[in-house]
Amino acid sequence: MDYQYITEEEKNNIIENQLKQLEANHFSLKLIEPSKLVNPNEHMAWQQQIDIIEDSITHMRKQKIKLDNG
User: Fold this and answer.
1) Among 11, 22, 52, 59, which residue's CB has the most CB atoms within a 10 Å radius?
2) Does any domain span residue 45?
3) How far is C-alpha 2 from the geometric centre of its chain's CA atoms?
4) Residue-level pLDDT at 70
5) Is 33 a domain residue?
6) C-alpha–C-alpha distance, residues 9 and 3, integer Å
7) Is residue 64 predicted with pLDDT exceeding 90?
8) Does the residue 30 lie in any domain?
């Protein structure tokens, strides 16, 4: 899509802010990892959240590289 109202710098800021938020969410979740042995269902749900965030971080990092390279 051709954006008419946001600059390349603004796009970069948006991506950086999204990455910061995703990394903060990942860090927060890592702090509260439930026990696999005590709460296997909770741990499975937690792991799914971690996986989704990690996939999102990877995707956003690729978008940043793409934007940086023009």
Assistant:
1) 22
2) yes
3) 24
4) 75
5) no
6) 12
7) yes
8) no
Q: Which residue has the tokens 């990892």?
A: 33
Q: How many domains does the chain have?
A: 1
**Which residues have a Cβ under 8 Å from the Cβ of 42 and sit 6 or more positions away?**
34
Whether residue 6 is predicted with pLDDT greater than 80 in this model: the reply is yes
Report the predicted TM-score, pTM, of the whole model to 2 decimal places. 0.88
Whether the Cβ atoms of residue 56 and residue 29 lie closer than 8 Å to each other: no
pLDDT in tens, 30-42: 999 999 999 999 9
- The mean per-residue pLDDT over the stretch 25-52 comes to 97
pLDDT at 1 over 90: no
The DSSP secondary structure of 8-68, one letter per residue, reads HHHHHHHHHHHHHHHHHHHHHHHHTPPPTTT-HHHHHHHHHHHHHHHHHHHHHHHHHHHHH
- Does 18 reside within a domain? no
The one-letter code for the residue type at 48 is Q
